[in-house]
Amino acid sequence: MDNMLIKGGSVVDGTGAPAFKSDVRVKDGKIAEIGQNLQAASGERVMDAAGCIVSPGFIESHTHFDATMWWAPDMDPLPGYGVTTSVMGNCGFSAAPLSPDPKVREAVQNEVIGIFSFFEDIPAQPFKERLPWDWNTWSEYKTSMQTHVKTATNTAAFVGHIPLRLAVLGLDAWTRAATPDELKQICALLDDALAAGAMGLSTNCLDHDGSGRPVPTFAADDAEWQALFDVLEKYPAAQFQVSLDIFIHQTAADWIEKLATLIGDRKIRVQWAGGIPTLQFQQPILARLEDLKKRYEKEGKDFWTGYAHIPVTSSINVQHSLMFAQSDEFVWHEVVEAKTQEAKLKILKDPEWRARARDSWDHKAHPWSPFGGQRMILLDSENGVGPVNLTVPELAKQTGKHGSDALADWLIANGLFSTIHMMPFEMMDSVVEDLLNDPMTVGNISDAPAHGQMLCGGGENMLLFSTWVKDKKRISVEQAIHVQTGKLANHFNFHDRGELKVGKRADIVVFNLEEIERREMKKVYDVPDGSDGFIWRWTRDAAPVRFTIVNGEVTFENGVFTGALPGQIIGPKFALA
């Protein structure tokens, strides 16, 4: 830790209050003093913040670093974007608990890896090689993280409902409800996690696998949900996070109504991620969900709506992508599942497959998807053969072929590592603005570093400044900072950080508003492939901020990551009810 004096900046304290000119003194990892014209003490480092904003460090509210941090502890690109805390274990996915039964443990572990690998587009091999898997319970997982992993940001984690079910039911978790005895075991594992400092329970009422099979949480019956809620209520600072479907089958309203009924009068904080749709094509389901939100507010429920301030964008490839299956485009997903490049090429050239692909493209893929809508696709060649920078309908018209055939031929000519870029969906700006200003919402959702070959995620927080503050002028800079600092710290019960106040942890970012922006995605080859080599992922160059400070230690300065790994495992302060 450095003792430091940040001089001459404009302090935005994270509460939403107006900026004010002040200096900030940091001592022993905490904010020691805030005031004008402070004088440097002996041995204290002076940091020039003239022309800059000094704010709390940014909190990434929804990430999937659970495994990635074991081989990428720099949490790239987060330090260059002012991020000091990353919340993971979302969507019902976590690396713990595991089954202690040696007869099923390996199968359960492989299932946990496979779920992460498919749904979050994270390669399976480094899971197997870089994680020690020396835990059964979530508390043992936390101990393993504290022993083996040092990170550039603080981390906080939910325990996932999916591994809770897998740890007790084994592979039966996909297909059936828990017995009373199994339910007691599931609840004991949840209790262990919450007592050890897990953020709460995350679950998934959204995802289906590559064959259309719902994830194991769909098999939970009402008795299981209510038993889990009984455990959660014992820990007032914990919360229940549920990922809902406003995209694929648009079942969000049905699920949140069911879960709200099962929660009943229990005092539980709920984060319903994907609660309010923000994209134009989702407008038909907006009114019902907004009505539910108003009802829960009127009833005094502690329900917080999770949302993203950016439209969904991604890059798709036929090496490893869930986008085909999640669009119900299972015929094209056969290409992704083929194990070798030769097998993929054989499928793409097969006349029988092409006939099925055309039919699926026209009649089975979701109309909002890049396949059903077609207009959503742009092309980026691996080998430069081209053509590039046009949509698939334009390519189809140019070649006189069906869109599916045109794309298949284009991939054959341009290489199977070529990427297909989705154009951004049009957003309902007024809805997003309302959510940004709503006191009961969870913003700054990015999915970093999930979907490594689909999107980056890290760095999306800069769009709050470049798009919503500077371009659209829909919110103030103070509100943009509040959305990703004090507001989130309050929601997650991080009472020792998130605001610039004397006595709080020195998680701080210093940046010039005119210098920062979200940089374009770029490929880097640094993900272990299990064969002493590396495969690629998307990342971004730094925003850049001037300084990122985590627990009083500088992690980003002079445009580069400093190499410091001062992150701590943090969580809400629990008290049993």
CATH topology of the largest domain: TIM Barrel
State which percent range the strand residues make up: 15-25%
Low-confidence stretches: none
In whole angstroms, the N-to-C terminal distance is 36 Å
Residue share in helix: 25-40%
What does this structure look like?
The structure is a single chain. With 577 residues, the chain is of the alpha/beta class. It folds into 2 domains: 339 residues, Metal-dependent hydrolases (TIM Barrel, Alpha-Beta Barrel); 106 residues, no CATH class. The protein has 20 helices and 23 strands. The strands form 5 sheets. Strands 1, 2, 3, 4, 5, 18, 21, 22 and 23 form a 9-stranded mixed β-sheet that branches. Helix 15 crosses helix 16. The longest helix has 16 residues. It starts with a strand and ends in a 16-residue tail after the last strand.
Secondary structure elements and their pairing?
Layout: E1 4-11, E2 20-27, E3 30-35, E4 45-48, E5 53-56, E6 58-60, H1 68-71, E7 83-88, H2 105-119, H3 124-130, H4 138-148, E8 154-157, E9 159-160, H5 161-169, H6 180-195, E10 200-205, H7 222-233, E11 239-244, H8 252-263, E12 269-273, H9 283-298, E13 303-306, E14 315-316, H10 323-326, H11 330-337, H12 341-349, H13 351-363, H14 370-373, E15 377-380, H15 392-399, H16 403-414, E16 419-422, H17 429-437, E17 441-442, H18 463-471, H19 477-483, H20 486-492, E18 508-511, E19 521-528, E20 534-540, E21 547-550, E22 553-557, E23 560-561
Helix pairs in contact: 2-5, 5-6, 6-7, 11-12, 15-16
